[in-house]
Amino acid sequence: MFKQWHYQTGKRFFRIYHKELIREYILIPLGVVCVICVLYGVDRLIKDVFRIKFPASVAVMLVNFAFMCMCSMLKKPYADMYISIIDVPLGWSLRWMNLFFTPAFVTLPLSDRISFKETMLIVATFVIGYVVGFVVLAYITILCQKTFSSEKMKSIFTRQHELGDDTDQRSRFAPVELKQSSDSSNSTFEGAAAGSEHPSTRQIDDHGLEDIQLMSVASNSNIPISRSVTHVPLRDSQISKNEKNSSSSTDPVTSSPMLYISSTDRNQDTASSNISFRSGGSKTMTMKPPTPTRTRNSGFIPRVSDEEKNIYCERAVTRQIPQQMNLIFTTAMLKEHFHHIIYSLGFFASMFSYFFSWYTMPYHFFTAVCTFMFITNAPLVNNPKHKRFVHPVICSVALTWLIMLVSVLIKHRQVKYFITELRDYKTTRTYLNLFNYTEFKYRQWPGAGDVFSSCMDVSIVALSMPMFSYRRDLRKHFLSMIPPICVLSISCLTLYPLICHKIGISTDRSIGFVGRNITLALGTPTIANLNGSITLMAVTTVLSGVLGALTGGPMLDWIKVPEGDYVTRGVTLGCNSSAIATAYLLGVDKRAAAISSLSFVLFGTFMVILSSIDSMQSFVYNLAAL
């Protein structure tokens, strides 16, 4: 009986979710490999033919954005078909982008030692640069709006309580709203890309947004806002509606099971109730209670009153179908935690390769992935009160260090091998150097950090998705966004290296400050082009994001930025605090979140382009070495 129950559960699971499993574990890996092959070919083309130093990932990102815009201008079906194809690997890379940031933090102990004086100088430069950049960027944006824009900055889209009307000019970032329509009884969420030409609707809880999934909003198709949306409660109005139309209800996004009871027409002669259950799939199972039983003397059981009808049917159904309900709930639970099971098995299997062979990449890889998933699913991190303080990247890296240290002590019995394994964690032999046998030794194989760095290039290409989704906002506010972004780009390339070196900060760290405002995905190639400290850039970037999420709103109010000026708020937080602050804006002003997403992508792209120019590289180095 026990084996048969497990067989039925597995059979039902694969029957319902086989398409999702094929997408997640077959199509996505193939798509990622295809994108990496394209990136490798473009890199060879740029270096061997054009003989310039420019990241292939950024070049492909720009080409992909231009191609999507051309397709949308020609024929909409072409754009939809192309986006549905590229969204398979690119959407996955956006969802896991924060995991790909971790190698820069894991290898932090390998950095050169720094004195206490230089540490204090770095802290002071960071704080002053953050505040000055915040204020200057806000006022320049306001000035550009007053100069180039004829309409008022106050907009009906900006305040959350003003987003609830049903006007035709509704923002694509309207808040979650439960609508009662004539053709559907369920609530739908107007996603971030609802205003684009490839809309997607989602039902979501107000607390379901995660800051590390900010890029999910930027995606243009079937990427959920949060990594997992589990419990979507029904309101009273929905329950009364479901009682009338139980068979027409659909729920395309809820991943946890939803159970509701729908009564049949009161005019029917027999008392009956339908119980419907929906798991993560699109199918609905409707179960009917058995017909009334016959007594020995009086025939059928007398008809119950209307007040007792629902109670009677619920008890009858609950008594007679516990096994079916248990099967359905188990299937839904298996769907929710299937990837946890897969990676946990991979983690335990990789222990054998770690302790009985010299190649540590599989163990480090599964350790990083499992710790990241553990942190992102921890109740403490998902609590809105602590989410802005406890960033998943920092917490998962700390847990990775602890597991690696314990593993080293078990395997080698000496702490000094911890530094050796950190060097093996990232050997810089990514897909770009995989076939380079002249610079790398025979047994210098790629580490887990190199795998994540290769996937990071796929994430950079995926940043073209938010640019395409918000292209209308870019066209509308182009003259208000580009001047402050250009001013900030030039200031970061000139003032940070000059001032940092003058006050006593080393040359590579002075150049590393150039990437303080840039998101990690684009800041890494920027600082690599300038030969700066990528470690310092990574730390300051994450701290800027956390600080922006904590103090962004109060600082904007302090410098008298109007609450309705969503363009200034989006540009200021996007360029100064990048992705983490943009996730904060999702819960405050979703229209500003769109502008913020555009701003940090455009700003990072400009910085990568400028840092790829040879004369600019020499100029920045001379400023930091005077």
TrEMBL record:
Its main location: membrane. It comes from the Eukaryota. Residues 179-189, 261-282 have a biased composition (Polar residues). GO terms for cellular component: membrane. The keyword Chloroplast does not apply. Residues 246-257, 283-296 have a biased composition (Low complexity). The chain crosses the membrane at residues 21-42, 54-74, 121-144, 341-359, 365-382, 389-410, 477-499, 534-554, 566-586, 592-613. It is a multi-pass membrane protein. It is found in: Membrane. This is LrgB-like protein. It comes from Eremothecium cymbalariae (strain CBS 270.75 / DBVPG 7215 / KCTC 17166 / NRRL Y-17582).
